[in-house]
Amino acid sequence: MPLRRSLSLVAAPVLATSLVGQVHAHEGHDHGAAAEDVVVPALPRAAAASDRFEMVAVAESGALTIYLDRFATNEPVLDADILVETPHGSVAAEHAGDGTYRLPAPWATAPGRYDLMATVTSGHAGEVLVLNLELPA
Q1: Which one-letter DSSP state was computed for residue 15?
Q2: For residue range 110-131, what is the model confidence (pLDDT) as tens digits?
Q3: Phi and psi for 78 in degrees, rounded to 5?
């Protein structure tokens, strides 16, 4: 009797795993074809960091949107003055009112590599951040 019980304990999992591959969806449970993956290209961006600040600049439609936060806390810096050396000279970024800064960048519509230098001043803290922006063809 113990042998028969042992065999049934071994046979049950083997039988259950052999049937797993043969389970089919029945009425109301057929989910059809799998959804296609949607690929959305990311906008070109450049990032830089120092001991005090982190900056990300995103290029779109001939302008840069600049995100600036404190390195230690990731808190947005809302009171900064940002001056960016661009291919067309020094340009001051303006507060956008939503925690970001905007910078007109008509040069950012042409593909290429752009080396930018941002001087950030907030309170008594100041830093120079170097950004490398790559715009694909």
Answers
A1: H
A2: 999 999 999 999 988 899 999 9
A3: -100, -10
| Helices within 20-127 (DSSP H only) | none
Q: Is the dihedral of CA 114, 117, 121, 124 positive or negative?
A: positive
Question: If DSSP codes are grouped into helix, strand and coil, which group holds residue 25?
Answer: coil
Cα 134–47–123 angle (5° rounding)?
135
Residues 10-27 pLDDT 10s = 555 555 555 555 555 566
Phi then psi for residue 9, to 5 deg, are -70, -35
- The number of helices, as runs of H, and strands, as runs of E, in the chain is 1, 9
CA angle (46, 105, 97) in 5-degree steps: 80
Q: In the sheet where 81-86 sits, what is the strand order?
A: 89-92, 81-86, 112-122, 125-135
Cβ atoms of residues 60 and 106 within 8 Å = no
- Let me know: does 93 contact 82? Beta carbons within 8 Å: yes
The predicted model scores a pTM of: 0.70
The residue type of 124 is H
